[in-house]
UniProtKB/TrEMBL annotation, chains A, B:
Ranges for domain HTH lacI-type: 3-57
Keywords assigned: DNA-binding, Transcription, Transcription regulation
Species of origin: Pseudonocardia zijingensis
Protein name per UniProt: LacI family DNA-binding transcriptional regulator
One Gene Ontology MF term: DNA binding
InterPro entries to which the protein is assigned, alphabetical: HTH_LacI, LacI/GalR-like_sensor, Lambda_DNA-bd_dom_sf, Peripla_BP_I
SUPFAM superfamilies for this protein: lambda repressor-like DNA-binding domains, Periplasmic binding protein-like I
One Pfam family this sequence matches: LacI
Length: 341, 341
DNA sequence: ATGAAAGCGCTAACAA
DNA sequence: TTGTTAGCGCTTTCAT
């Protein structure tokens, strides 16, 4: 049978309380006592029973991570980091997928997890500020992603305007002038990346050309490909650069360009967003905005911990990002390998 | 405060036991009683406390899923399915990553999770049959992946020999004769995919050419690219087809071929293994062996459930797969789009 | 600084 | 068929 706290106490010749004190790092324990207890723990091979601990502490011991889909590489990578950050707080992570379904997203806000979890890290695709504001569930919540939340809950983000601006400026620095965007539309409220796109162009005195902007309704490669197909069919002269909302979309865009006989980056330079693992395996490798995912995860978990301790002023938490330049903007004929690889 | 079982009982005017019976689907409950209790549950908004339930039941309520890396798309996708299958058994999934580190893999066998979990789904990259046989931890264990396990534990797999055979036969059916393999080596014990490769060639009277086989030491795209570079540097005539151990490796191989001025599939057809989500976004889209991941996950979780109920004859559990044909073997100049997309 | 004992919310003998 | 009650293993007042 598995050793319990009492077994350790018996072995060390002390009470359960003392063992508990040692385990939980209570300060007022003599060094000798601590050593004796630790030895006993080691001898009997004690491991705390988390169900019992959580029951006694009145917490669930787990948090929910709600993402659109785990097999979307950005979220896979993000989840990885959340798992690591949560583990340090003694939390197990219950991953839930919404598959971009508005109903499922609403269920999260409605308390679908009941009080089963100590907190929720939520990356919404559909629900907006109003729905979030009106939620009744009191479970600590932290939001991720580009959608604005107007201070209704903690929100961990990168500065999407600045990031998009940086990506587009990079294209302009390369001498490109007809810079398209897949994934807009420009001007609709809250699309920060579109804002950065427009800002970068405007600063150089280039007007935003609506013909060079095609919105997509999901982040899938297929959508990106179709969008690029549509744009090319419509234009007499193709763009000389494309800024894509996500890397996955960018991969589809590159497919489309390739199938239309356009070379990347020679004819058209392409920048993505997210820096998914595949950006180094694609042909050409993909220039992309790389958000500091580890920081996103860390801040999200820290937010939940703070909320659990009573903190309750919703905060906007900003984390870093960088532009990683690879072949899709820097290569010659797709045959050179830049250092960034 | 969160409603408890007692609150439901009070509301319904019955005892806790009756409520518990209803919740746990005990058979001998009158319809009227059941309805009354369900109504009460609904009225007070009761949700069971899992810590308490698990403590009382003497189980942890969670299983561990140990994979090399969650942001490798095959494992991301697999994890997604495991989450779903486990949820149906009332299990939360604690995902752990080994990053292919032999030490971490051994820690899993040594009981790093203590008795913290009710079972372990383990996808090993390094540890072998012997180490698994010698483990002392009694936690139910089920293994995934190609590595053979000689009946030391439950093992969920596809028939890797048949799958590789199918992939290579497909290449031969296309008229290719110099079929290379990235990820061997042929003949080393237990590499089922290599076996299938050799079998398909032999059946057609083609000898395995050692010059056309290059092993890789990880499944990363970079490795595949380097391996293909090496092969091309060595050969006077390039192969006309390549069978790759994984899709990720295949992406790297395609990069290498492209950078050497070889067209896929015109000059060289490429088949991957795993059918990761990106195989439809790459240029060209990737022909691949697609294991029935949902079945893998389902069987793995079922295995743990069976072991927990006392079953203990290690079983080899086989699940299905299929070959998905896409542009990397079927396209013309990479410009045609086959129906398989 | 350490010990004794009362819960945490649920399940499952055992009774009725 | 339904009720009573003793744990499950841990934390945590409250004493000492």
């Amino acid at each position: 049978m598995r050793p319990r706290l009492q077994d350790v106490a018996d072995r060390a010749g002390v009470s359960m309380k003392t063992v508990s004190n040692v385990i939980n790092g209570y300060v007022h324990v003599s060094e000798a006592m601590r050593a004796k207890v630790l030895a006993a723990i080691d001898e009997v091979g004690y491991e705390p029973n988390l169900s019992a601990r959580n029951l006694a502490r009145g917490r669930a011991g787990m948090i929910a991570l709600v993402v659109p889909q785990l097999d979307m590489p950005y979220f896979a990578s993000l989840s990885m980091h959340v798992l690591e950050a949560a583990e340090k707080q003694g939390w197990v992570v219950l991953i839930q997928q919404t598959r971009g379904d508005a109903e499922k997203e609403r269920a999260v806000l409605a308390g679908r997890f009941g009080q089963r979890v100590d907190g929720i890290v939520f990356s919404p695709l559909r629900v907006g500020t109003d729905e979030i504001r009106q939620r009744r569930d009191r479970t600590p919540l932290v939001l991720l992603g580009e959608r604005p939340v107007d201070g209704v809950a903690d929100h961990v983000v990168i500065d999407n305007v600045a990031a998009a601006d940086l990506a587009v400026s990079h294209l302009l620095d390369l001498g490109r002038r007809r810079v398209a965007m897949i994934g807009g539309p420009v001007g609709s409220t809250g699309t920060h990346r579109s804002e950065g796109y427009a800002a970068a162009l405007t600063r150089r005195g280039i007007a935003v050309d609506p013909d060079l902007v095609v919105p997509v309704h999901s982040n899938r490669g297929e959508e990106g490909e179709a969008a690029m197909d549509a744009m090319l069919a419509r234009l007499d002269t193709p763009p000389d650069a494309v800024f894509c909302m996500t890397d996955w979309v960018a991969l589809g865009v590159i497919r489309s360009l390739h199938l239309h006989g356009l070379r990347v980056p020679d004819d058209v330079a392409v920048v993505g967003f997210d820096d998914i693992p595949y950006s180094t395996a694609s042909t050409p490798t993909l220039t992309s905005i790389s958000p500091d995912r580890a920081a996103v995860a860390r801040e999200a978990v820290a937010s939940l911990a703070a909320q659990q301790k009573g903190e309750h002023e919703p905060r906007e938490i900003e984390v870093g990002f960088e532009l990683v330049v690879r072949e899709s903007t820097a290569g010659g004929a797709g045959l050179r390998r830049p250092a960034g690889r």
